[in-house]
Structure formats: C-alpha cells, structure tokens
Design brief:
Layout: H1 2-48, E1 52-53, E2 73-79, E3 82-92, E4 97-101, E5 107-109, E6 115-120, E7 123-128, E8 141-148, E9 152-159, E10 162-166, E11 169-173, E12 176-184, E13 187-191, H2 194-198, H3 205-214, H4 223-239
Antiparallel strand pairs: 1-5, 2-3, 2-6, 3-4, 4-5, 6-7, 7-8, 8-9, 9-12, 10-11, 12-13
Helix pairs in contact: 3-4
C-alpha cells in the first residue's frame, strides 16, 4: 500500500514538473516573438534611416526648392526592396533628392539609387534609369507617372535656382518647369505643345481633338490634363 502511494506521489511530481517546463517554454516563446518582430522592424528602419544628414538651404526665401510644399507630408517609399508607409518626406526637385524625417527630428537624405518609387499627395514618383527604363538621352532620376496603360505619360518636374538683389540682400528664386514625355511603343517622346502631342497619333487626330473640345480642355491652360486625356483616349481607340 505504501509503495502504491509513493508511486502515485512520484508520478504527480513528474507531471507537475513537466507541466511547469512546458509552461515556461510557452511563456518564453510568447516573449521571444514580439522581440523578434521588434528586432526585424528596427533592422529595416535602420536601413531606411542610414543616410547622411540633409541641411535645408535658402530657408529664408519665399520660394523654395521643394516640390509643391516645404512642410513635411507623409508618404510611401519603396527603399532597398522594403516598403515603408506614413513616412514624413520632402522632395528637393532642384537637386532631385528625397529627404525623410527621423524620429529624433533629423533630416535624412536617402540614397536615390535605392529608391524604387515614392508616393505623396496623389503623386507617384518612380526612379527611371537612362538607357534602361527610358531613352539614353533622358536624365536618370525621378519621374511623376501621370498615366499608366499600354502607353505611358510621365513628367520630369524640375526647378532652377535664380537670384535677385532686394535691399542689398540676395533672394533665391525657384521657378518650376515640367517636361512631359509620352511612351509609344518602346520609346519616349517629349511633348510641349498640342501639336507635338497629336502628331504622335496621326491616325486619331480628329477623334483626339474632338475629345478635348467636348471636355472643354484647353491645352495651354492645363497641359497635364490635356496630355493625359490624349494618351488615355488613344489607348482606348487603339483597342477597338
């Protein structure tokens, strides 16, 4: 009887010890998982924030070197194969450089060759390489993709730095220029006028003119909308 009681007691102890070990293992796994996730996220963030510091220049001028705004706007970046959402960014279109804001407030200049694309304020900027993605004579850099279909419409947004003297002070000016390109086949063609855009599609000139007229789109007043409408309409007509 004593042997039986001792055996039952021993088995109970072993079961309790095994249960305790399993519980400890499970608890360790639960703790390790968020730590691993944190390390992975931190590693990716370190890759994004590994650029050199960017210093804002001409910050006292009324005009600025950035695209549309000089305040931080959140956007999406595909950087070195990783996608990052809700990243505060500025796009310096004078130097064609993308700047992001670090958690500590520092301005970080990203390596352009590692930026596949970035999206901000309904604009989709893609980095194209001359001779590979675009014509050899075109400049490698970021292009705003306006239309994507069988054909494509992109625009190179640039600013030039100019100076003027006001009350013995140098004031920087940054007039913006937009260079539009249409891809037809495997080549890009620069367009700057209604005529140059329509000449790319001679077989549909009449229909394209009619669409612009029906939609009351004036090319000189709204080149961007006019060019996108022409290319989009051409793709639709070419399918018929």
């Amino acid at each position: 009887m004593r042997i039986c009681t001792f055996t039952i007691f021993l088995l109970s102890c072993l079961a309790f010890q095994s249960f305790g070990q399993n519980g400890a293992v499970a608890e360790a796994k639960e703790t390790a998982y968020p730590i691993a996730m944190y390390k992975e996220a931190t590693s990716q963030s370190q890759n994004l924030y590994n650029g050199r510091q960017y210093y804002v220049y001409d910050n006292r001028s009324e005009e600025h070197q950035f695209f549309e705004f000089r305040k931080w706007h959140n956007g999406v970046i595909m950087y070195d194969g990783q996608r990052f959402d809700s990243i505060p960014m500025l796009y310096d279109i004078f130097k064609d450089e993308l700047i992001i804001k670090h958690f500590n407030g520092d301005h970080i200049l990203l390596q352009s060759e590692k930026v596949d694309y970035f999206k901000v304020d309904n604009h989709n900027f893609v980095r194209y390489e001359a001779g590979k993605d675009i014509n050899e004579q075109m400049r490698t850099g970021f292009y705003d993709v306006l239309y994507e279909g069988k054909s494509r419409t992109i625009v190179r947004r640039v600013k030039q730095r100019q100076e003027k003297i006001v009350d013995k002070m140098v004031i920087a000016l940054y007039p913006q220029k937009n260079n539009f390109f249409i891809r037809k086949g495997d080549r890009y063609y620069g367009v700057s006028s209604k005529k140059s855009a329509l000449n790319l599609f001679p077989e549909y000139k009449r229909e394209l003119r009619k669409v612009l007229k029906d939609q009351r789109i004036k090319f000189r007043k709204n080149r961007e909308t006019a060019i996108v409408t022409i290319v989009d309409t051409y793709d639709k007509l070419a399918k018929q």
